[in-house]
Amino acid sequence: MGLFSRGKSKDRPDTDAVDRADDLEQDELADDGALYGDADGDTAASATSRPLDRSEVEDDSDYLNLGAIWLRGQQGMELRLEVNEQEQQITGVTAVIGESAVQLQAFAAPRTEGVWIDIRNEIAASIVDAGGTAEVLTGEFGEELLTRMPQAGPDGRTVFMPARFVGVDGPRWFLRAVVSGRAAIEPAAAEAVHDVIRTTVIDRGEEAMPPRELLPLRLPDADGAVQAEEGAVEGGPDLNPFERGPEITEVR
Asked: Cα–Cα distance between 33 and 43 in angstroms, integer?
């Protein structure tokens, strides 16, 4: 595994991401059709792949164990662990590949029913209330939420930041993935990010937990002490996937 280093604490949107949003906005109408099928379902893809449950994995030697989430590395992938300093809790992991990123969070879920439909509707309502747009479309992992949030560009005019919310209901767990950057709208960039999602392993554990409670993440095994930057996480990925708090990064 790679060496971890202290990431910079950011309590504001990533300005580079806002700059990129202006470029992405120009191409998103053409690229949406390539990522998704028809709304009527004639050419829409079904959920043909999904993350794995821990019980389905025999050989874990290729994975980075972060507790509830295990990841398989890719060339050039940078990992960021997002930390809520106030609660001393790792709240998510983001894999950055080129100009794309995917934030992963795992939650407890009921044994007999999924939670993605309800969560998806709640996210959509929140984004629309904040002035953005949200549309349910079908992708590789089933029904996804394609969103665009208004952001102030460098020149002061409004641009729209695209992001895709992917949800996967597993056995007593739920995985939410937020795809941002070019992978949100460009098929070529999306492939590497989708590979992160489809090869993710969720270790639910046996502890009883209420539905929607965040499954615990931890620092991976590494030589030397690793600490996060001080400060609490502000904002959240529901409205701006690029807004993040203290991080610990690994470059693979």
From this structure: 11
Cα 200 from Cα 157, distance rounded (Å): 38
Question: Do residues 202 and 51 touch, judged by C-beta distance below 8 A?
Answer: yes
Nearest to residue 185, comparing CAs of 167, 163, 153, 159?
163
pLDDT tens figures, 235-247: 333 334 434 444 4
Strand-pair category, 201-202 with 247-251:
unpaired
User: d(Cα 9, Cα 134) in Å, to the nearest integer?
Assistant: 29
Under DSSP, is residue 13 helix (H, G, I), strand (E, B) or coil?
coil
Please provide the DSSP assignment of 46-111 as one string: P----PEEGGG-S--TTEEE-BSEEEE--TT-EEEEEEETTTTEEEEEEEEETTEEEEEEEEE--S
- Bridge partners (DSSP) listed for residue 150: 160
Could you count the other beta carbons within 10 Å of the beta carbon of residue 8? 8
Positions in the chain whose pLDDT score sits under 50: 1-47, 223-252
Q: How far apart are CA 196 and CA 95, in angstroms?
A: 8
What tokens appear for 232 in the block?
A: 């609490």
Over residues 132-142, the pLDDT tens digits come to 999 999 999 99
